[in-house]
Design a protein that fits this description.
This protein is mostly helical. It is 65% helix and 0% strand.
Length: 248
């Protein structure tokens, strides 16, 4: 049986990543990119809905996807801090997208072999979406890293900002470890090497350096979040909390 805690952490990753991505709507550097980022956000939101709905069903406490998304407090969310970081400039968003989407594609590929057929089914759709997200992030990483002196400097700075938060992607909390041990989930530590194998050639081609250092920030899986996370949730949850139970 898949534990609801594991499903919640995966759903929270996708939900918060989607919320951050939607903030680029009408603000991207070009119209085509505005549409592309909106589509990526919709993919992530779809993943979040599937995972949170399943988590609510497994939890058995009567909470649906809306209750889990809009009626939990910050410390109840189990997403990694990487996805909640402010968008920054466009290069920061691309660095986040590259690191997170490569991780997600590897994760969902592993979940295709989950002993939980429902979770494997969710992964089957999500892994195809993540492949597009990776391609999009790679194209922009190359374009910025191997572009002008200014774009290169901005992309390099963005990588330095985001890099420390990538380490938490590969650390298992208790719920993740338990699900990996019984063949339902994926041990994130096993994804680190293939993740680096995917990211490193992109950086080489873009003329970027992979940062050094293994400092890990607070652990979002345990409900430890950045200062900006509270504001993000306030904006995301305001309507639902103001009108609980409302229907269109």
């Amino acid at each position: 049986m898949t534990g609801s805690g594991y499903l919640l952490s995966l759903g929270d990753d996708a939900l918060i990543a989607a919320q951050r991505m939607t903030q680029w709507c009408a603000s991207a550097p070009e119209l085509e990119e505005d549409i592309a980022l909106a589509n990526i956000a919709l993919d992530l939101l779809g993943q979040a809905r599937a995972l949170l709905s399943y988590a609510g069903a497994r939890e058995g406490a009567g909470r649906d996807e809306d209750a889990l998304a809009f009626l939990r407090d910050p410390e109840e969310f189990g997403n990694v801090q990487l996805v909640e970081l402010p968008n920054g400039d466009f290069a920061v968003t691309i660095a986040k997208l590259l690191f997170f989407s490569v991780y997600q594609e590897l994760l969902y590929d592993g979940l295709l072999r989950s002993r939980d057929s429902a979770l494997a089914g969710i992964a089957g759709k999500a892994v195809k979406e993540c492949a597009y997200h990776v391609d999009h992030a790679v194209c922009w990483t190359l374009r910025l890293g191997d572009g002008t002196a200014q774009s290169h400097a901005r992309m390099s700075r963005a990588v330095d900002i985001i890099w420390p938060y990538t380490h938490a992607l590969f650390i298992a909390d208790a719920a993740t470890a338990a699900q990996a041990a019984c063949g339902v989930g994926v041990d994130p530590a096993t994804l680190r090497a293939p993740w680096l194998d995917r990211v490193r050639p992109v950086f080489t081609e873009a003329g970027l350096d992979l940062p050094e250092g293994d400092w890990v920030p607070l652990h979002g899986r345990r409900g430890e979040h950045t200062e900006s996370f509270g504001l993000l949730l306030t904006q995301m949850q305001a309507l639902h909390r103001a009108y609980p139970g409302a229907r269109w």
